[in-house]
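sorry for the late reply, my laptop died twice this morning and i had to redo everyting from scratch. anyway the thing you sent over, i finally got around to it. pasting the sequence first so we're on the same page, its 129 residues, then the predicted structure underneath. double check i copied it right bc i was rushing
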Amino acid sequence: MAPANTILVVDDDPQVRATIVRALHALGYLTGEAADGEAALAALRAAAPPSLVILDYVMPGMDGAETARAIAAIDPDLPIVFSTGHAALRALRAAAGEAAAVLEKPFTLDELDALLRERLSEARRARYA
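ok and here's the structure:
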């Protein structure tokens, strides 16, 4: 079981967001939710920071790249995992870079778990380096 990290899930599709939240709960994570970039920024300003953000790339209003830049202005060390469908992957890579952590939809519970563990571990190592 994963440590009790809190993950903020940002996705404009309520069914996708709920599915990701259920998967995170199954893996032992605590969660917060936001339906768009503006709501995500408000959540970050209003509460204790999450351990990581799962951020949909294609959203109306602020897209994932814009939201990621705004999140980095608030907390530059907060790890972000982008989630996207295959069609938007090229645009995401162009905007966020090849090194961006990407969870391609649809994904399995094992893929989600592995990527989150990797990113959280990297963040811990960077914090204590």
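Residues 6-127 form a domain with the Rossmann fold fold (CATH 3.40.50.2300).
thats about all i looked at so far, will dig more tmrw
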